[in-house]
Description:
Strand content: 25-35%
Number of domains: 2
Number of helices: 13
Helix content: 25-40%
Structural class: alpha/beta
Mean pLDDT: 96
Amino acid sequence: MRFLVIGAGKQGSACALDLLRQPATTSVIIADKDVSHLPAFLAPWRGKNLELLQFDLKDDAAVMAAIRRADCVCCAAPYFFNAKLTKLSIEAGKHFCDLGGNTEIVFQQKAMHDLAVRQGVSVVPDCGVAPGMVNILAGEGIRRLDKAEKVKIYVGGLPQQPEPPLNYFVVYSLEGCLDYYTSASWVLRNGKRTQVEALSELEEIEFPAPWGKLEAFHTGGGISTMPFTWEGKVQTMEYKTLRYPGHVAIMKPIRELGLIGDEPIEVEGVKVRPRALFIAASAPVLVKPQGRDLIALRVDATGVKNGRPAGTRWQMVDLYDEERDVTAMMRTTGYSLSITAIMQLDGRIAKPGVFAPDEIVPAQPMIDDLAKRGIILKETAL
């Protein structure tokens, strides 16, 4: 199996690591505008079956030449490249999966479904944790029920040792995090799609010790197209982000004061984007390269089975990998992407076309493959 991983950041590097550890992998190309700062954990494969390739994603000819050398493309580049890279991969007859990040882009990819079918190509957007892993679990939970009533999803990337003022540090992108805090979230209410405000409907969730009580609140994008797919079939569906208690009490006033707004304002004759200033000022506090993180996750799907109340809960707390120096966010996100790509090539995802994870990725094989990597999803009946 030959893979092209586009994006040499944290998630792309973790995806490449997992692919390289698979016996069936013959080669991995990791490509980006700058490939000079790859994590140390990839060093053992350099000069063997790992190739570093430098290119500009705006150079379609160079990108297409790289795509043609692979059997499957794993995209960990910024989301706004996903539609173009999907089109190029389909034209080249190569399977494609990505980390998603923008629901409108996913709909652009879905518009290429017929082309992908004609080319015999599998395309799976949104293959991280949320969206990604949680969509697969939610879809499985829905299908187990005769009538699905509620799907509630909770995910958070958190420090193992919280520190004030926010009890939080950045585990992926501060810009992306702030975008989630300011974008409305799609949910299902009474079976119909509607939007709710980010940081709203705060509730308390209990996780096993030592993590204990966490707070949950709405953020946008976590389940991508699911409210559109399952409208009229599920009564209630929502996604909430998890943080340590007190986070919203600080972040909501910051947002309301306009301090993380995206529209430039004039300050002493200079146009300034408030969010850019906030990131520049807070990054020294919130970005901790040596921080140890965790990913907390819960997916509940409840309804009726054989005339009785029934449901399933999946829960996980995954920790930073001390041995390989791989964060929990990199493990859960990057490995979910790599497992999807492997499934596209080994036939477990065999249907051509563009499908969201909850529509096409088999849940139990994904759960089993994550467990082989030490990422344990515990299932209980509700």
